[in-house]
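REVIEWER CHECKLIST
Item 1: Sequence provided? yes
Item 2: Single chain? yes
Item 3: Sequence as submitted:
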Amino acid sequence: MMVPLICNPHHPEPRKIMHAAQILERGGVALYPTDTVYALGCVLDDKKAVERIRRIKQMDDKQPMAMICADLSNIAKYAIVSDVGYRLMRRILPGPYTVVLAATREVPRLLLDKRRTIGIRVPQSPICLALVRALGKPLLTTSAVPPGDDRPVMDVAEGKAAWPRDLDVTIDGGLLPNESSTVLSLIGDEIEVLREGLGPVEGVVA
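Item 4: Structure as written out by the authors:
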């Protein structure tokens, strides 16, 4: 049975966040707000939950998925970060960016592409960050785009309509910008814009 939660987007209630985290720890799939769009997520290392998300979004195995970390100190466990990349991330994170980095062995293989890279987010979203901290581990994340659509759902009601039987918990954090994150490749010392989104590019890339 789906558990609906309404959270204060600026000061999420710890009891509600802990309830959501417990559902995820038991293999649940969540619909939750980030600082850009609503997303689907599960615990990073839960293979069955990851496969459920791929199924309900009708994703193929080659479509990338990202992970949400609580802060920069978590990133080094899962990705190889150059000095150039670290200095940039200190400037832009938390924020509406996804950084693509070379993955370490801590990243589950089913999340990696052929280049063994992983997209990582530290969103400027109190709900997201509180959820990851409650879990004590990263959250797998992918935009909540229903099959056949090209835009994420606008709110929780739309998400429930799209997946009436597939969500274990929904976290309502109100309306969002509904614009995707800016994606930056930080492989080695090179900074490359892979997708322009909500995060400004001016001043980030020379």
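Item 5: Key structural point noted by reviewer: The longest strand covers residues 97-103.
Item 6: Recommendation: ____
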